[in-house]
Here is the input.
Amino acid sequence: MDIELIDGLKSGVQAPKTSLKIAAKPFDSVQSLKQRILAVEPIPFPQELQLDGKPLADDERLGDIGVGDGQTLRLIVRASEDIFVRQLAELLEAKPLSATELGLLYCHQRGASAKEALAAIGSDEQLPEFLKRHKRFTTQDGGLISLCKQEASCTVDKRLSSISEGQEDEADLTNYCINVNISMKTQSGNIEECAVQLTVNKAQTVQKVCERALAAECIPFAPQDVVFQGQVLPAAERLGTCKVNEGATVHLDMKISHQSLVRQLADVLKDRSLSVVELGDHYCYRFGAPVSRALQLLGLRGRLRDFLKANAAFSIESGLVVLQQAKSAKETAANEGYLKLHEDITSCPSIKQAQSALDMTIKAASEGSFLSIARVIRGGSVGQGTAIKGNTDAKAMLLLNGMPPVGREKWMLPLLHALAAALWHALSGKAKDVVVKGDAVHVQFEGVGPIEISLDAVAGPAALAAERTARFFEKQPVPAKITMKLLKWWRDQKSWRDVQFRPSDLLLEVLAAEVAATLPSDQDEAMEKAMELMANIKTCRLADPADPAINLVDEAFDSRQMAELATK
Here is the structure.
């Protein structure tokens, strides 16, 4: 059937018409037809679909109202500057935003960009210019846009104007402020927290509050639980029913993973192919934040193209991103099992305690000693982000100014003893013991393995080797570090005939990085590839990050132990 779009009236002048031909079935509803139109022609303003001048209800089916093949319907779009201003004001109720953030949120909620909305009302202004022209908005220091005081103190929620008179008590429409704390845990074990204050009323639902809070922080993922006073709140319940009153704090608990992003992108790509740029644009429209924001929250440093290449769910053919055939239920369950195992072995207090102890020791060495420290290189599994339960070694190398890069053995030992004395004094009451062992100071805390602090000159050989190793781990993507931790857990579950043949942390970490470079997909495939390399490790060359000329395999094993290495 043919659909004729009319953009409404502005200053008495009718906008140009647009025609679309859409295939529809008799049992399609008017609402579903509208949604298909908006997918082709993003329209951020109120619309009304008409047949022969008669408005059609959203729940009516096309066959029931006599819409047949070749029929022409009219979509009336009522675009006005007042409506656009009200839409922007709603987005600024939660907190001030930059013009860029405001534009992204508008695109998320309305399905069209602010530029398209301005064009629809006949304005050729940019969004910042439009905001400056209107008295409802004010620009704060730093460029943030907020509602003027009169708007911010408004006590009636205009978005509930559609509620019939008498359906709600007047008290339910009175605005008040609540706090929303958002806690996001990634699959790597990192936790990011943020807070936002919202103006709400008792008639609003928990779901609406969640959407507003996440939109305010540009978070494109959905919460797992909404918790208030220890109770999980149903999404459909109203705040008044849940007794979420003035000054209350609601917690949004979220667990996000790269699989969450894979599912979102797959949903966008369903039944179509898009270029990488188009996929990013559609993602922003659908989920209200740039895909770069999603990658940032997941701790991934690459671009969308890198993420797509790293996942077997997608392929790029002739410049278009194509969704690959879905994995079997068995493969999906295996992948989720690995991610669950990773969460279990990294969600332990000992890792956080070791991180805290390392931070405390570095601070004490920097502030409580006479050493002139140029910079600090963190190492060990804690410093490199590969710690698991039972494997929380933490190290740091202090690079000193003014020391000769050669002859480290001559000046190191006296400085280590002086550093140990300074740390014992600075950490009095916190550290159980501080001793010099070998070429490092060992600081022992209650319930935590020793923290090792070593020294070298800024350009010393040990410093250069430590810097190369640190850079190696810094550039590893999150999936590679997950594989590293899973491999170390696998090794710790095995019994080894001789400790000298037990694969070292570094060997397994470099092997995981090799897997990520050749097959950077989900954990099921990554572990399968890692075990394949284990079975043929005799033929592998795994270079030591500190010295690429060294092959870690030759340094660690002989041929008699290859079969044992390959055993799962």
Summary: DSSP finds 22 helices and 24 strands in the chain. Residues 349-368 form the longest helix (20 residues). Confidence is low (pLDDT under 50) at residues 7-15, 155-168, 559-563.
